[in-house]
Amino acid sequence: MTRFVFMFNTFLFLIFITNSFGFKSHEFKKCHDVEFCRENRERAEQQPIESNGFYISPENIKIDPSGLSGLINHPTENDIKFTFTLQILHNPKNTFRFKIDEQNPSSKRFEPPHILQEDNIKYSKVSIVNNEESAIVSSENNRFVITYKPLKVEFFRGDELVIVANDRNLFHFDHFRPKPTNPHLWEQRFRSHTDTRPKGPASVSMDFTFVGASHVYGIPEHATSFALKPTRGPIGYQEPYRLYNLDVFEYNLDSSFGLYGSVPFMIAHTSKGTSSAVFLLNTSEMYIDVSPPVKTKSSAESTQTHWFAESGLLDIFVFLGPSPTDILEEYTTLTGKPTFPSLFSLSYHQCRWNYK
User: Fold this and answer.
1) What is the pTM of this model?
2) Average pLDDT for 127-135
3) Phi-psi region of 282 (alpha: psi -120 to 50; beta: other; left: phi over 0)
4) Which three-class secondary structure state does DSSP give residue 14?
5) Which of 8, 139, 229, 267 sits in a 20 to 30 Å window from 302, CA-based?
6) Which helix (H) or strand (E) element contains residue 86?
7) Cβ(21)–Cβ(250) under 8 Å?
8) Which whole number is the average pLDDT over 106-111?
9) Helix, strand, coil % in the chain, rounded to nearest 5
10) Are 226 and 218 in contact (CB under 8 A)?
11) How many whole angstroms separate alpha carbon 115 and alpha carbon 117?
């Protein structure tokens, strides 16, 4: 009996220690606690009707030497419009840039400085075929097809469709607006903390389909598998991948929870041996949903992803590779090559902090 009591007390003590010093999930926000995350996920669950999405009026299209520019119309507010540019880059090669911002914002949205190696960026000369419904823009072996209503952009390597932006009509852009009498959306509370938003909701979102890819990789840092697990559907995680820098004691393993760094850069690889990638230049808090592979009209299997950030604008880079090495060359040409570490630092290091 004494032995049983001792073992039982030891068991309770271990539970107490674990609860006292382990990862305290209740102290951190989940998607349902974050308004823009919750709303974007709900929007995806409603499967938006194509005719109700953001669209482009053909008369607002301008043809540029390296691509297209113009205005995107809000689906319900006629006086709200967004500017866009869509270009093909010569350097880095096999790269596209798709940038969306408010036309006349009440204040300028934040654009992260010192990220791009501007001297390295060169734009291609393109050929354009334009009509009332879409435009085809080509340069050498690369082209994109932009459909005006609803807005959709398809990126091709030769004749192969590689990535589709706004494939599921999940593009959304909360425009700045005056504060209303009931400032419900201008504040957000979590536990004892209140987060004020002087300009109101400002989230941006876009979905990307990686055609022919059954797995995607990247978006560090998360304590998860190399191939990212789905965050929608019956398998994988229930929470989207969070990109928000955190230093967490005894973080959970096998989780979509954000850790020490955030890089919104995702790579896909197909059974044909070709790769593609997306980089979203936005430093706001961000969430990314990854759906299980689905069959599409153009491919046996594709991976659908949904990206949504709290604020900022959409500055999207699409890389067509075609190899993983090419992808990294294109990405680091854009953002800069890593610095080689000092010789004295090249030795064995091991930290025993946070072991379980």
Assistant:
1) 0.89
2) 95
3) beta
4) helix
5) 139
6) strand 81-91
7) yes
8) 92
9) 20, 35, 50
10) no
11) 7
